[in-house]
């Protein structure tokens, strides 16, 4: 039987929302306080949902040790206590939580082989959350 | 179609062990969860039902009835119990969160007459939950 398992992780990072394609005035109008050149930070909550048949022998969709070690190595080590703007994936794109969602989804989609990736959900604050389940 | 979610909490102990595997394999797969003396969690259960809103009552489901079914079928059987030893489904299945969500679904599905069961979500901790939609 198919079940969907969600694991929640925390990381903290700073960013600045600024687009080189816009003028200073447009950046200020679009991003407001998030355009502050010195940046600012968030405690992000990341939820990773995987799905698949429950293995008869283990009772599991995916061994949590495997999922946790992959996410710690590939996601948390990459982003926790870092400035997102300095990362290669945000050289060309603005590190909004939308773009962070798709970046994390792509890393998981490429490297996580133990279970099918359903979706990535990120809470930037308690008031904002974003989800990406692949697709255009 | 309107969806309604009822939340409940229960506390229970369990351990993970597959008698078909060697002690070494059990230890490797299940780690600390393999301790035969068990350990416990405060589980949070979310049951989501769906249906059309009854024009007379304005309800999707009579919450009192839903609560009675939940109490009788799930909480009375699982709250403050050792899942492996006291809940019938887990005499042959490992009481992982996946199997717990599936077992709760099957306990509820035949007893809900008014509304249609949509999802069973079981939180083992605030950082880990499983969703089951009755998928084969």
Core attributes:
heterodimer, A: about 140 residues, alpha+beta, five-stranded mixed beta sheet, 5 strands, about 30% strand, elongated, B: about 140 residues, 4 helices, about 30% helix
Structure description:
The complex is a heterodimer of chains A (about 140) and B (about 140). Chain A is of the alpha+beta class. Helices cover about 30% and strands about 30% of the residues of chain A. Chain A has helices spanning about 25-30, 65-80, 95-110, and strands spanning about 1-15, 40-55, 80-85, 115-125, 130. In chain A, strands 3-1-2-4-5 form a five-stranded mixed β-sheet. In chain A, helix 2 packs across helix 3 (about 95-110). Chain B is of the alpha+beta class. Chain B has helices spanning about 25-30, 65-80, 85, 95-110, and strands spanning about 1-15, 40-50, 80, 115-125, 130. In chain B, a hairpin with a 2-residue loop joins strand 4 (about 115-125) and strand 5 (about 130). The interface of A and B includes residues 6, 8, 9, 58 and 64 of A. Strand 1 (about 1-15) of chain A pairs antiparallel with strand 5 of chain B, so a sheet runs across the interface.
Beta-strand portion of chain A reads 25-35%
H/E series of chain B:
EHEHEHHEE
Give helix % range of chain B.
25-40%
Order of helix and strand elements from N to C terminus of chain A: EHEHEHEE
Radius of gyration of chain A (CA) equals 17 Å
Shape of chain B: elongated
Report strand order across the widest sheet of chain A.
Answer: 3-1-2-4-5
Largest sheet of chain A: 5 strands, mixed
- The overall average pLDDT of chain B, rounded, is 96
* Fraction of residues in β-strands of chain B: 25-35%
